[in-house]
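Posting for a labmate who doesn't have an account.
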Amino acid sequence: MKSTVILNLIAFVFVLSSCNSNQSSHLKKGVKMESSNKEKVVALLNSFNTGDPTPISYINPEKYIQHNLAVGDGLSGFGEVMKNAPEGGFKANVIRAFEDGDYVFTHTEYDFFGPKAGFDVFRFEDGQIVEHWDNLAAVTPANPSGRTQFDGATEIADINKTEDNRKVVQQFVDEVLLNGKMDNLTVLVNPTKYIQHNSAVADGLDGLGAALKYFAENGMVMKYDKVHKVLAEGNFVLTMSEGKFGKAPGDHVAYYDLFRLENGQIVEHWDVIQPIPSKDEWKNQNGKF
């Protein structure tokens, strides 16, 4: 028997999904507009734990575009996922949350059909969520430096340097990840302070070099083909990219990379890599990006 938490959320999702335009307008007026978009997203994710249905009203029921390819479009797709939740439901622990214009992006520890590390991106219009992207991967043991997928710095700083930090990461992605140019690597990445949270890579540029050597010697691929979004708040920057990963020629994957910067250099990195399923497996037609 499903918990009361899940049943409450399912019921509220389907009430919203079936609202006509007049009812939807009424719901929009009921949204706590004094909350920031970031606060709304944190409340929505936390509702997995509390069962509070109120934050679901932060989603526009008439215009919710879903990019998780395992979930149907709109609120009805979200409701179907909730109906299939395991006993006890899902859990979400938001570790980091950021806001960039109409976008909110989060780094979350999930219990979602098993322990998961996830990044979520939400787009807002008129105070309501209208679009969602995410990347999820299984939680793994600590990396060779003892770092996990979640620990590390959380404090947002240097808000006045947001655009400068975005440019540094954009340059790093363009030069290093997309084109393999290492000329400016030690300018863009602090070689003595670089902290790595990828479960297979150790701290420092030596750790990165060892990982790349392992890939080369074992016929593996880590290739970035296109960057779709670069979102930033202060000293944190998230990139959403696609490419190839794994045994050559590599699987088609989505890369979500979160970088922390100090004094114009990258000093910390978290990531989630998720395979992109073939189109015949998609439950919506909005694409991963």
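Reply:
Got it, the structure tokens are right above this. The CA atoms of residues 244 and 250 lie 5 Å apart.
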